Amino acid sequence: MRVIGGKKLITWLFLCWLNLVVANVEGDALHTLRTNLEDPNNVLQSWDPTLVNPCTWFHVTCNTDNSVIRVDLGNAALSGQLVPDLGLLKSLQYLELYSNNISGPIPSDLGNLTNLVSLDLYLNSFTGSIPESLGRLSKLRFLRLNNNSFTGPIPMSLTNLTSLQVLDLSNNHLSGVVPDNGSFSLFTPISFANNIDLCGPVTGHPCPGSPPFSPPPPYIPPPTVPTRGSNGATGAIAGGVAAAAALLFAAPAILFLWWRRRRPIEYFFDVPAEEDPEVHLGQLKRFSLRELQVATDTFSNKNILGRGGFGKVYKGRLADGTLVAVKRLKEERTPGGELQFQTEVEMISMAVHRNLLRLRGFCMTPCERLLVYPYMANGSVASCLRERPLNEPPLEWPMRKRIALGSARGLSYLHDHCDPKIIHRDVKAANILLDEDFEAVVGDFGLAKLMDYKDTHVTTAVRGTIGHIAPEYLSTGKSSEKTDVFGYGIMLLELITGQRAFDLARLANDDDVMLLDWVKGLLKEKKLEMLVDPDLKTNYIDSEVEQLIQVALLCTQSSPMDRPKMSEVVRMLEGDGLAERWDEWQKGEIIRQDLDLSAHLNSDWIVDSTYDLHAVELSGPR
């Protein structure tokens, strides 16, 4: 067992304590919300108050600091009321509670969520007024409160939200004048539709006494003077009077039309595939939003196949009976991003290989981005390893070897045969899918770039999963094909051990929470048999397990320069060059560990004298 130095241990413990305190406050707030909601489908079953960290709960997403950044409970059949405690989620960026039956007012404490980007409360039963405090949400981009029962005026404070891109207050009982200044100058009547007591230029309904909508004064015809040819003159005068009256009565309509034309038209609606001739992305089909809503039963929770950093995946059945997987992206959309989105989708669709998930189609509206893939009957490697029903057999060893080789070939294709090359940035067992023949299919590739289309060529947002992220990517935010190689090495260890890359449960046995450290520790203790997934029993070949572990350790070296390319990994798995590469690594490891020993002896770290400092030897040179 390792013993670490006092100062660093204290620092580590303090940081852990700080994270736990933050997580505990947020966990308490979310649990208070749970107790205030009726949950007939047990969607919130995982919200266990005995677990300090809410980041392990379903429908909750956290950042690397274990702060809650997303609560996603849309279309969950929830009822009840919100709680002021939600205002304690200081890092929250997305609050999605749409399509439920939640009632009561919006707590004014939501104005404390100053990092909030999206507030989606539409299709509920909320009542009361819209809180003035929402005007403090300076980063808010999406505000959808439509289809509720809100009353009272629209707060003037909302006009100060300069980042606001999407606003929908339609289908409520709001009243008073709709502001037309600040951010509200961007929005059209559809944003305020079906609020019969709202008035003002933007609604098309005049407020009392507000020009140019006030009615014109009654017309009083001038006296006529009979002259010679009075019949003709009278007709001419009558015609002129009628024309003037018509012009006078038409003036408000003309002015309104002029006012409408000078404002940007931003009607938000879905474009059916057959009605949009301007998008042609090779063989890709452009689906209408309605098609995918019908296919997924309006994105019902019962059809969710998985959740990840890019969004939820739903099982769907198209009109012709074909099963598909629909990925509903959760992204921040910026103006002008549509063309770049189309470009990146086209790039993804051009990556065609038997070990890559083929993109079948897409859907794009101003408020939605969806990708449509073939349905993978056998799920992911992660689900087969750790979520299989008891009555189903485990993944057999030959199948695991085939998965290792197939996924390596898919990644190699992304790196070496795509122009420009595609860096996955989140290689893990959950993103390796299995078709009906249990052939490995790499999924989610290209999505990191797709979601970062608004960034420059230097991407600073780290995307990935704890335990799979290469150290240089975590420290610099810069990814390369070698970050994918590191993730692939961790995925190999998942295949061999059946365990998660990051698992707090290992702490119970005083083990490392990181799978890579846990594997290295057992190898140094010569406990190879403890590494293999217990589900395999003895149905594996020792030498083949050793070879896969060797490849995994070569792929997870701390220096990206020392890691092999994916094309080299493919060759090693096919039996070419592994022995030589492993022998070279062992010699270097002895030197590195001798240097580490010298450094540790001269530091404040305490080194256990029983710790084996020799190179990891799984087997002799071949």
Write up what this structure looks like.
The model is unreliable at 1-6, 8-23, 213-219, 224-238, 245-250, 252-282, 452-461 and 599-622 (pLDDT under 50). The protein has 13 helices and 21 strands. The strands form five sheets. The protein has a six-stranded mixed sheet, with no helix packed on it. A six-stranded mixed sheet has the order 14-18-19-17-16-15, covered by helices on one side. The protein has a four-stranded mixed sheet with strand order 1-4-6-8. The chain has helices at 6-35, 230-262, 289-295, 337-349, 381-386, 397-416, 447-451, 471-476, 481-497, 515-524, 542-555, 566-573, 578-601; strands spanning 37-38, 60-62, 68-72, 79-81, 94-96, 101-104, 118-120, 125-126, 142-144, 151-152, 166-168, 173-177, 197-199, 285-286, 304-308, 311-317, 323-329, 361-365, 368-374, 432-434, 440-442. Helix 6 packs antiparallel against helix 12. It has 622 residues and is α/β, with parallel strands linked by helices. 31% of the residues lie in helices and 13% in strands.
